[in-house]
Write a structure and sequence with these properties.
This protein is α/β, with parallel strands linked by helices. It has three domains: about 70 residues, Sandwich (Jelly Rolls); about 110 residues, no CATH class; about 150 residues, no CATH class. It contains 13 helices and nine strands. Helix 2 crosses helix 3, helix 4 packs antiparallel against helix 5 and helix 8 packs parallel to helix 9. The two termini are about 50 Å apart. The mean pLDDT is about 90.
Length: about 375
């Protein structure tokens, strides 16, 4: 019997000695002393046998801490494709996993799209690699529930899976359709928002998500409130109708349709409902978005049945007139750069800024080809979270 080491620590292939002749064969599948001589000092106390039909996908869970188990897996008949991800050291193994998965996706897309159809191919690739991340996260969350992971263990594993998925997504998307500085900087900013939101999805404190109200409901409640007030006034009927008509005209000026009160994030902390908008930065064409946020902030301010607070988290520390307008409006509380991370830490109980500094290293984590592209096009300045 001999062992073959793999790239993953403590993951070994075991080749037993098989004694075969015309009658059949004999082999020793397990011997504690032999295993110990090979460096496998585990006592296996339980045997399970499963039969899988061709094409069946099975997930093999692992246990942590006091529930830890070593596993000895045999294939009694046929063959098995065994995919292992090491969630201990995480980064290198996850990068390898997503790169292998991305190569599979690209092979499939090569059949569906021509070389000149790079835009649709890039979009299809992004969907495929994101789907692979969601599949891995689903498996991870099932394992974490069964094995009683702490909230911090879950969050940190989710952060690493998401970051490594981003690294490979950027690499392979660039191989299909090379980034210029504008599309690259915009994409890095787009990825920042959902990454930060993970702290709110898997919080270490007791904050809760809530569903934002519909503008039509807010409008109906305010209309009822004002109509009731007008009906109680000691004025002539025709004057009441005139006041209601003026009120309808005001609504007509505000909107010709439904105003979306949904922002990037909505959560409750105690008695306060927070409305959050994430911004990578404020560009020179933010006038329309600024006006929308002012209108949305004003509507939330005037909802008296609930206590709302509107927040803006900005990745960049740069400032401009649009951000100043929102900050000075009294409707939105804005924080930028490190201050935004500090605020996220206070709400969620997790220091994501520390995690980013300790784990995110775009240039070293990128493939050699991607590093060359980033250096050649001077894109490194955009890789700051």
């Amino acid at each position: 019997m001999k062992t073959i080491e793999t790239k993953i620590k403590n993951l070994l292939l075991i080749e037993p000695k098989v004694f075969e002749d015309s009658r059949g064969f004999f082999m020793e599948s397990y011997n504690y002393n032999t295993f110990k001589e090979l460096g496998i000092d585990n006592v296996f106390v339980q045997d399970n046998i499963s039969k899988s039909s061709k094409g069946v996908l099975r997930g093999l869970h692992f246990q942590k801490d006091e529930y830890a188990q070593a596993k000895l897996v045999y294939v009694l008949r046929g063959a098995v494709l065994d995919i292992t991800v090491d969630l201990r050291s995480q980064k290198e193994e996850l990068l390898c996993y997503f790169r292998n998965r991305s190569n599979e996706i690209l092979s499939e897309l090569a059949i569906q799209y021509s070389a000149t159809d790079f835009k649709r191919k890039a979009s299809a690739f992004n969907r495929g690699i994101i789907s692979s991340k969601e599949t891995l996260l689903s498996s991870l969350l099932q394992v974490s529930q069964n094995e009683r992971w702490t909230s911090q263990d879950i969050l940190e594993c989710v952060l690493m899976i998401t970051y490594t998925n981003y690294v490979v997504m950027l690499e392979k998307r660039n191989s299909i359709w090379e980034y210029d500085y504008m599309s690259f900087s915009r994409r890095i900013g787009e990825l920042w928002e959902p990454f930060c939101k993970l702290c709110f999805t898997y919080p270490l404190r007791g904050i809760r998500p809530y569903v934002p109200p519909l503008f039509s409901n807010v409008q109906r409640e305010l209309t009822t409130e004002i109509t009731t007030y007008i009906d109680q006034l000691n004025i002539q009927p025709d004057e009441r109708l005139k006041l209601k008509g003026y009120y309808d005209k005001v609504w007509g000026l505000v909107t010709s349709g439904e105003i979306k009160l949904e922002c990037d994030l909505h959560f409750e902390d105690g008695d306060i409902k927070y409305v959050v908008d994430f911004k990578s930065g404020f560009g020179s064409n933010e006038k329309g978005n600024t006006n929308r946020l002012l209108l949305v902030g004003s509507i939330y301010r005037n909802i008296e049945t609930e206590l709302y607070r509107c927040l803006i988290f900005v990745r960049s520390t740069e400032n401009n007139n649009y951000l100043t307008t929102l900050s000075s409006s009294g409707l939105w509380d804005t924080t930028c750069g490190v201050d935004a991370y500090t605020r996220i830490h206070r709400f969620t109980g997790y220091d994501i800024y520390k995690w980013i500094n300790e784990n995110i290293d775009w240039m070293n984590d990128f493939s050699v080809e991607m590093r060359e592209v980033v250096a050649r096009k001077q894109l490194e300045e955009y890789l700051i979270w």
